[in-house]
Write a structure and sequence with these properties.
Layout (H helix, E strand, L loop, with lengths): L1 H13 L4 H27 L4 H23 L15 E5 L6 E5 L20 H38 L7 H5 L5 H17 L10 H10 L11 H20 L1 H6 L2 H17 L7 H16 L16 H16 L5 H4 L9 H20 L2 H4 L4 H15 L28 H21 L7 H15 L3 H14 L2 H13 L8 H16 L8 H24 L1
Antiparallel strand pairs: 1-2
Length: 550
């Protein structure tokens, strides 16, 4: 079998991008995983005797040499795409509904390219360009798939073999790919990343996805030889996501599942190699991802992308949480939010809360061992930000002085704000306060007084309507420290406020009754509350999407 593999690799080395080379790459992609599993089964049949283990290790070493020769010998697959690179936009192909990027320049014969039913019909030149791009991507993706199969299967098998007392550990190390080979794989991946914005299917290919999730985390990026490929990879990912972020049409047709696999792969290598968090290209890439999840929110600019991008925001939030854990005191929530808060429109504020701040605090606060990763300064900043957005512009709170001077002042209490949006923004802000008070109650000190003053200020103008009373019901039911501060206000001052809404009147009466009878309510655990918060967050997103699309 090894002779067959070597024969295929020899032919591929001559012309990896030819029809025959692609066929042989497909044969290797299919047979190598089966052969590795066959070797494992043969050792198991021999009850893992010394001779069987030794023979398996020798065969794996020989296979590793062959795979290295395959990767190092395919220089042509490390060349960039030489086809036409123009300004593209996506148009729907006739009948099939598949996406392809077409030239934006005017075409005098464009009218002849449309079918009777009005759908775009590609001409022969465009189909030829599509075929060129497919022929370019296919062998590279298959090579990455072969490497992913080998790395994932051999690495898991070697961990088992190391536990065998009769196995030589020095010989097992030879069965893995060296750094030089991994650097060549990165060069192959870069050629695909450069054309990814022009073809919606590149990132979703099997080899591309498996490399990001299986090979990337197992590569030793800490050695000096791999630093340059790592920087090149992060720089290219930053450029790719940046280009997608700038073009609405690219966001609409992006393969979001593949984008999630890229972010998950980055999260895996960040857990293994913490030094990556300080690389400028990684920080820039993280900022671009934050910009993406803000634009694909229900209130963002690209609402129609929301249903397609489900899960991408969660992957980015996990990546930010990992970055927060690694950097520790060097991580600043204020610095990360500086750019998004520059353009403080209602939609942007809503996107910031529902897609970034609240999911981040729920994710970090759901695990007690991760709560300590959040700095007290960041928690205080988040509380001050929410309070600043809730109170009217003419209200003055000394605790907020010095904060948020770098962006335009926005208030949810603005009279010119749409009523539906105002209710959603207040519901979102109150949810943020509930999440923080449940997850980080031990870290809040002066912030309790700040939130209480905010509630008192809102009672003067009765901003927040039903959401305001729902938050007070949470305070009274869960007996947070806010309960002690706000109890006199709820009992005496709120009775003097005139309320026209029947639901709000019932809530006020219930709250006063609970306090006066000193009834002990059944407290919910943090886990139950967080689960309720997740459901409420999803309900807010659905409501915002309905308002945006009505």
């Amino acid at each position: 079998m090894m002779e067959c593999f070597n024969a295929c690799i020899t032919v591929i080395g001559y012309a990896a991008d030819s029809v025959r080379g692609i066929q042989l790459l497909g044969i290797l992609e299919a047979l190598i995983p089966l052969y590795i599993k066959f070797l494992e089964s043969k050792s198991a049949e021999a009850n893992n005797k010394v001779e069987a283990i030794h023979k398996e290790v020798q065969t794996l070493n020989s296979l590793a040499i062959s795979v290295k020769a395959l990767i190092l010998g395919t220089d042509i697959l490390r060349r960039d795409f030489s086809g036409p690179k123009r300004h593209f936009e996506i148009k729907v192909l006739s009948n099939r509904g598949s996406e392809y990027f077409m030239d934006e320049r005017e075409d005098t014969g464009m009218n002849a390219s449309f079918m009777e039913e009005g759908r775009y019909k590609p001409n022969s030149q465009e189909l030829e360009e599509k075929e060129m791009l497919l022929d370019f991507c296919k062998p590279r993706d298959m090579l990455l798939s072969v490497a992913a199969d080998f790395v994932s299967l051999v690495s898991s098998r070697t961990e088992v073999l190391k536990k065998q007392p009769s196995c030589d550990r020095d010989s097992i190390i030879k069965a893995s790919l060296d750094n030089h080979t991994h650097a060549r794989l990165v060069e192959v991946l870069l050629t695909l990343l450069k054309v990814a914005p022009y073809d919606t299917n590149v990132m979703g290919r099997k080899g591309f996805t498996r490399y990001m999730l299986e090979v990337l985390p197992q590569t030793d990026w800490s050695c000096e030889e791999m630093r340059s490929p790592l920087h090149s990879l992060l720089k290219r990912l930053d450029k790719m996501f940046g280009k997608i972020h700038k073009k609405h049409i690219l966001m609409r047709y992006l393969n979001w599942e593949a984008a999630i696999s890229i972010v998950d792969g980055l999260n895996l290598i960040l857990n293994e190699h913490s030094f990556i968090s300080n690389i400028p290209h990684f920080k820039a890439l993280l900022n671009v991802c934050v910009g993406l999840i803000l634009d694909i929110s229900p209130g963002g600019e690209h609402t129609e992308v929301l249903t397609l991008s489900c899960g991408f925001g969660s992957a980015v939030v996990k990546l930010i949480a990992t970055q927060m854990h690694i950097l520790g005191d060097n991580f600043s929530l204020e610095q990360m939010l500086l750019s998004p808060l520059t353009n403080a429109l209602p939609e942007k504020i809503h996107a910031l809360l529902v897609n970034l701040l609240i999911p981040l605090f729920i994710h970090v606060g759901s695990a007690k061992n991760e709560r300590q990763n959040v700095r007290n300064e960041d928690i205080s900043y988040a509380v001050c930000l929410i309070v600043k957005l809730m109170i009217p512009k003419d209200c003055y709170l000394p605790s907020l002085c010095g904060h948020f001077d770098s962006f335009h002042r926005f208030s949810m209490a603005d009279k010119h704000l749409d009523k539906a949006w105002k209710n959603i923004l207040y519901q979102t802000a109150f949810l943020g306060l509930k999440v923080i008070t449940v997850c980080f109650k031990q870290c809040l000190k002066t912030e309790w007084q700040l939130v209480a003053r905010c509630i008192q200020k809102l009672s003067n103008s009765m901003q927040g309507s039903i959401e305001y009373w729902t938050f007070l019901d949470f305070v009274v039911t869960q007996k947070t420290p806010l309960y002690v501060i706000l109890k006199p206000m709820i009992l005496y001052r709120m009775k003097q406020v005139s309320i026209e809404n029947e639901n709000e009147q019932n809530l006020r009466q219930t709250l006063v009754s609970q306090i006066r009878t000193n009834r002990i309510s059944r407290l919910s655990s943090d886990g139950i509350l967080l689960n309720d918060f997740v459901k409420e967050l999803q309900a807010i997103k659905d409501k915002a999407l309905h308002i945006k699309t009505r």
